Amino acid sequence: LHRTKAIKKISEELELNLENMKRKLSNIRDILFEYRERRIHPGKDDKILADWNGLMIAALAKGGKILGEKTYIETAKNAFNFINVSMRDNESRLLHRYRDGKAEIRAFVDDYSFLIWSALELFEATHNADYLKAALKLNKEFIEYFWDDNIGGFYFTANDSEELIVRHKEIYDGAIPSGNSVAMLNLIRLSYITGEPELERKAQIINRVFSEKVADNPIAFTQLLVSIDFSVGPSYNLVISGDEGSKDTQELLTSINNHYLPNLTVIFRPTDAEIPPIAAYVDCIRNYHKKNEKATAYVCEDKSCRAPTNNPKIMLNSIRAEWDL
Prior knowledge:
The chain is of the alpha+beta class. The chain has 3 domains: 7-36; 48-232, Glycosyltransferase; 236-324, Glutaredoxin (3-Layer(aba) Sandwich). The chain has helices spanning 7-13, 18-36, 50-67, 70-86, 109-126, 129-146, 179-194, 197-209, 211-216, 222-232, 247-257, 312-318, and strands spanning 48-49, 95-99, 102-106, 236-242, 264-270, 296-301, 304-305. The strands form 2 sheets. The chain has a 4-stranded mixed β-sheet with strand order 5-4-6-7, sandwiched between helices. Strands 1-2-3 form a 3-stranded antiparallel β-sheet. The relative contact order is 0.08.
């Protein structure tokens, strides 16, 4: 149904009551829709992909954290939980696609890499250790099935997938970043958070394996350069210890979220528990406590921590954020 004038204008020209005119148009639309439904519907791309959703979840979690939009974070949580639970096979392996109530096709490098990224962003947005647990579990599977034990880097397909003439590794960062580029940053962040040196070692191997390609044409590997920048530093690990939901804790967290600090990992240590859930994955976290009965920030660089502070401005200065104050 096409009209070139406003409904009010048409009703005036036809000398019809506006409400009657709206009802007539509604009836006409219903008749047209009924006939249209008899036609063969065009094909629709309604599949759910783990990799693309991983990118969306990471963006929503990060955006929700920075903007204070809880609905973004809730949407990210729901999407992540669906993929991480429903898109699994009988062996609990991650799958690539979901459609018509069925999950199929063993996951590829991007599926794992992007979903780990999303779990890390959710961990920092919610401070819920379950997302760190999920990231570590996914990363363990990722390394087991995709890592090249000979020279390093992640293959595009798993080692038990259909046998190919050549198992290639993708590194080019186009409209979508490559799985290896994102994986390198994931490994560094996980290493910073957990203190596990083997994860950082694997990240450095990725850097070394693809270094010649990057040197020849850096502009084609922008996400990998982001990962390299995080690795080279200066990069920081921040632990905020305080009572969950308290005003002083929120002041520290908000001041971090209000500044662009890309080379930073943030861990929240709730002080209402002697051994918080995060301690299962970050053993040293139990050593971080409040000072002066206030929420306290510990800024660490190169495994060396500065004096703890309760002051958001001092905390930010320690992360060299003076330019953004």
